[in-house]
Amino acid sequence: MSQDTQYQELKVILHAPTPAALERARHNAINLRREVPEADVRIIVNAQAVAAALDEAHPELDALTWVCPNTLARIDRESRPPLRLLDRAAVLEIAYLQRDRWTYIRA
């Protein structure tokens, strides 16, 4: 298998439930995209990481960052562009993505 074929279908979820995990996920996403630019990467934030994502913009990665609507409601905040809002709870979205062959990494 060639390297191009090997990485063609790489789909990775970087799950960040805490501010420290969000920082790790961002570093992981940068490293992954540097090595495999065509990889599909999603940073999914919930719990305490949501406020951190809202408060600490990352121009290069915010468009890859998906926010849990349940956490937003609980902390009574709204998302901001280019952050993306999940259609359902982060835990459910992660389960569906894993079913669809995404690789899960807890940051």
Order of helices and strands: HEHEHEHEHE
Largest sheet: 5 strands, parallel
Question: What strand line-up does the widest sheet have?
Answer: 4-3-2-1-5
pLDDT < 50 stretches? none
Coarse structural class: alpha/beta
- Average residue pLDDT: 94
How large is the share of residues in beta strands?
15-25%
Helix content: 40-55%
Please give the number of β-strands.
5
Query: Total helix count?
Result: 5
| Radius of gyration based on Cα positions | 14 Å
Give the CA-CA distance, first to last residue: 29 Å
Morphology? globular
Overview of this protein structure:
The chain is α/β, with parallel strands linked by helices and 107 residues long. The protein is globular, with a radius of gyration of 14 Å. The longest helix is centred in the first third of the chain and has 17 residues, at 19-35. The protein has helices at 3-8, 19-35, 49-55, 69-75, 90-99; strands at residues 11-16, 40-45, 65-67, 84-85, 103-106. Strands 4-3-2-1-5 form a 5-stranded parallel beta sheet, with helices on both faces.
Summarize the structure.
The protein is α/β, with parallel strands linked by helices.
Features of the shown structure:
5 strands, alpha/beta, 107 residues, globular, 5-stranded parallel sheet, 44% helix
